[in-house]
Amino acid sequence: xxxxxxxxRADGARLSTSFREAAFxxxxxxxxxxxxxxxxxxxxxxxxxxxIGELEVASFxxxxxxxxxxxELTLTTAGATPLxxxxxxxxxxxxxxxxxxxxxxxxxxxxxxxxxDKPTKRGIFPLCADADFKPSNALPAEIxxxxxxxxxxxxxxxxxxxxxxxxxxxxxxxxxxxxxHRLNEFMHLLAGSVRFAAPDxxxxxxxxxxxxxxxxxxxxxxxxxxRVAKFYVCQNVPA
Length: 239
Hints:
By secondary structure, the chain is mainly β. 0% of the residues lie in helices and 53% in strands. Strands 2, 3, 4, 5, 6, 7, 8, 9 and 10 form a 9-stranded antiparallel sheet that branches. A 7-stranded antiparallel sheet has the order 1-18-15-20-13-12-11, with no helix packed on it.
């Protein structure tokens, strides 16, 4: 049973995920380069992009979080120092942002994008592995199959109009029951490994450098035996 879509394997292993070449909405700057693995309610999509060249974007048409997995990508806005992203570095591009996107040689990155008709935050927001982590909400005891973990997060971007939240998160090891996932969630693991269980007993294992997407409602469990850190995007889809 597929409970999560793997977007990238750090070891280069073949993916079972199906991708389709498609633009995300109108005026997509990456229309010729985008491969979508999932697109669903809330006007959100996740997948991967392979890009080389230069783009001048007067107004970025949606919100997009990107994490580079190969090569180097440079994002520049007027009056700011260019942001250079290498492997395992990421950023959020706010809807409506004017920027230049450059890759002198082939850059590959995973993405999680969402439409936003009324953006509230413009600009480029870096995602940092050495984040300013602060304690975050504890997991409910009734879903745990072991000790309560210590979780921390660093939320760097929020756009309420799109129900979109992005940042970094880490946690001590924990084991959780299989339950419907409460959010659409993109993850890129910065440290550790996770075993995601499905209702049929199958397990999807991911490790440092891997990226995946879990749709809201997918029945999924979590088991980790070491510290896990990740970049994330979460989206609450209204009922």
